[in-house]
């Protein structure tokens, strides 16, 4: 029997990158998946068809989760589509680069609404479902090493991830009596489409790798492996923690 056979999973922001890798990993181990992205376009349709080859139920629900009601609706529609929800992966996130004095209210709101508010209200909707059904659950938030270390010119992003750290810790205490576990995954430099421009810049890559003791970027599949562990029964006594997956970047960076 596969590890996640019969389990139902919602992964926000799962049309590419780390989210897509998580979806592939969990589906390959038997999970039914609700994918999410802003638009149900041709690429989304092709992704669903490709993932259906893994032999599980695959749905795609298009929602821009930066609006609280949208993420609440997404959770409820995922529950309806799959007949229940065992695991929620809050993966969707955005970043905006600017000097602190040039950050606009619009960019600040977009980052905070997507990276923090959506997690807050999506997890709330999931917790209400679990309470109503008198069942436990699992929540995994995609954080970042920047919940812990600085990222100049990304002040709003760092604030959102720092907030996510404390939200997770607080909810671990509140949700544990309901048998709901919650943890953060904090990737470092991962080879995803969002980093494509930087990866093409030899000077920037050289500077980056000098800060990573393992001297390479991580892969989305490696992050997905950690998510799969935290979602599994092997992690049944783990809640309230952040798991860094960064090739040693975080604490090496702090020593610079």
Automatic annotation (TrEMBL):
GO terms (BP aspect):
monocarboxylic acid metabolic process
List, alphabetically, the InterPro entries matched: KR_dom, NAD(P)-bd_dom_sf, Sc_DH/Rdtase_CS, SDR, SDR_fam
Ketoreductase domain span: 7-188
One Pfam annotation reads adh_short_C2
Q: State the family named in the UniProt similarity comment for this chain.
A: Belongs to the short-chain dehydrogenases/reductases (SDR) family.
Official protein name in the record? Sugar dehydrogenase
């Amino acid at each position: 029997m596969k590890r996640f056979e019969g389990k139902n999973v919602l992964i926000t922001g799962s049309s590419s990158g780390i989210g897509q890798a998580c979806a592939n990993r969990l589906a390959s181990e038997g999970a039914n998946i609700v994918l999410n992205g802003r638009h149900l376009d041709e690429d989304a349709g092709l992704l669903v068809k490709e993932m259906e080859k893994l032999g599980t139920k695959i749905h795609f629900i298009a929602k821009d989760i930066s609006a609280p009601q949208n993420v609440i609706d997404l959770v409820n529609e995922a529950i309806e589509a799959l007949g229940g929800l065992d695991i929620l992966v809050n993966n969707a996130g955005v970043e905006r680069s600017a000097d602190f004095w040039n950050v606009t209210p619009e960019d600040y709101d977009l980052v905070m609404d997507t990276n923090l508010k959506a997690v807050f209200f999506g997890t709330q909707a999931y917790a209400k479902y679990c309470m109503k059904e008198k069942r436990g659950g699992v929540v995994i938030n995609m954080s970042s090493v920047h919940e812990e270390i600085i990222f100049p010119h990304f002040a709003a992003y760092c604030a959102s991830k720092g907030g996510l750290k404390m939200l997770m810790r607080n909810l671990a205490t509140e949700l544990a009596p309901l048998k709901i576990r919650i943890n953060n995954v904090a990737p470092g430099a991962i080879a995803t489409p969002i980093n494509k421009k930087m990866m093409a810049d030899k000077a920037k890559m050289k500077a980056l790798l000098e800060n990573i003791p393992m001297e390479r970027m991580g892969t989305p599949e490696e992050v997905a492996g950690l998510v799969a562990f935290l979602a599994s029964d092997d992690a049944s006594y783990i809640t309230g923690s952040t798991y860094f997956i960064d090739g040693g970047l975080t604490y090496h960076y702090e020593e610079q």
